[in-house]
Amino acid sequence: MTAFIFPGQGSQKVGMGTDLAKASPHAREVFEEVDDALGQNLSKIMAEGPEGQLTLTENAQPAIMANAIATLRVLEKEGGLTLADKADCVAGHSLGEYTALCAAGAFSLADTARLLKLRGQAMQAAVPVGEGAMAALLGADLAKAQALCDAVAEGEVCQVANDNDPAQVVISGHRGAIERAVAAVKDHGIKRGILLPVSAPFHCTLMQPAADAMAEALANTPPQAFTVPIYANVTASAVSDPAEEQRLLVDQVTGRVRWRESVTAMFKAGNEHFVELGGKVVGPMVRKIAPDASATSVVTMEDIEALAKEIG
Q1: Catalytic site includes residue 24
Q2: Which one is catalytic: 203, 262, 273, 297?
Q3: How confident is the model at residue 245 (pLDDT cuts 50, 70, 90)?
Q4: What is the model's pLDDT at position 105?
């Protein structure tokens, strides 16, 4: 059994999708459709930068999605494979959950791009720049990370945002609390704490205004039926009901990305092969979480051709 998985924020880089667009008209169509939906030349920012523009949350989120869906579209149109036939489930890391839903037919490409643009804008606007922060804790499991957050909060928000793999947890909250956490890592048996270059404190309660904005947006553009189950970030379990998934997407804005548990659950359900489309981020995490699973990251035309041969 095979799970198709999709990367989250941080996987963007200038030049993304350029080679694919040159090699395939199907990839170009995806980028053009996203540009049209957003009324901006996002594909130019993806191809040429500047990096500061691409890193803006409102651009990074639809760009990462577009790159992954372009990879899938080429795989389907030129590799002769369909996700519905080859995948037993899908999942995505944070914004990647929207990509996964688009891939499984719950949202159109244009609607996914618009939802992610809005999500990026709402997350950015939820907390004034400089008031929030995030940090990666290396050599930390969930229990150590939680103990650290509890110890340094001092009445401020300091929460586990992403439980990524057995040795990497990301925390989020007020800048003061996150800086105290980074300074105190050694006291909690954690190897390192690194402040992340992000513009807002994602996946914590400070994001409630963004959750409210997404509740309204998803009420107007609800997910439709999808072809395979999705493992939701906030529950780490399979979801097949669009109405349930709609609620979980709202919860996801303030909730923890339970990626480690999601991969474990997919593997326990019999998914022994994981295919990451459009990045090389969540595939390597899979190998740390489920060493007996195989994980393939598909980015280039060569990667697509190799995968088509392997699972065709």
Answers
A1: no
A2: 203
A3: very high
A4: 98
Candidate list 94, 172, 199, 297, residue with the active-site label:
94
Which tokens belong to 30?
Answer: 């995806």
pLDDT value at 239 more than 90:
yes
**Interatomic CA distance for residues 129 and 58, integer angstroms:** 14
Q: Give the mean model confidence (pLDDT) for residues 148-163.
A: 98
Q: Would you identify the CATH topology of the domain 2-126+206-311?
A: Malonyl-Coenzyme A Acyl Carrier Protein; domain 2 (3.40.366)
pLDDT of residue 312: 77
- Answer for the pair 7, 65: CB distance below 8 angstroms, yes or no: no
Measure the CA–CA gap between 119 and 171, rounded to whole angstroms. Answer: 20
8 A C-beta contact, residue 208 and residue 127: no
Return the H-helix or E-strand segment holding 111: helix 109-126
Q: pTM score, two decimals?
A: 0.97
Which tokens is 131 given? Answer: 């008031």
**DSSP letter assigned to residue 206:** G
**Cβ atoms of residues 228 and 216 within 8 Å:** no
| Four-way CATH pick for 132-198: 3.40.228.10, 3.40.190.10, 3.40.50.920, 3.30.70.250 | 3.30.70.250
* pLDDT for residue 11: 87
Residue with tokens 């930068």: 49
Contact in structure between 292 and 312 (CB atoms under 8 Å): no
For the chain, the structural domain boundaries read 2-126+206-311, 132-198
CA-nearest of 202, 210, 199 to 119 is: 210
> Over the stretch 171-214, which tens digit does the pLDDT of each residue have?
999 999 999 999 999 999 999 999 998 889 999 999 999 999 99
Q: Is 203 a catalytic residue?
A: yes
Strands 2-6 and 273-277: parallel
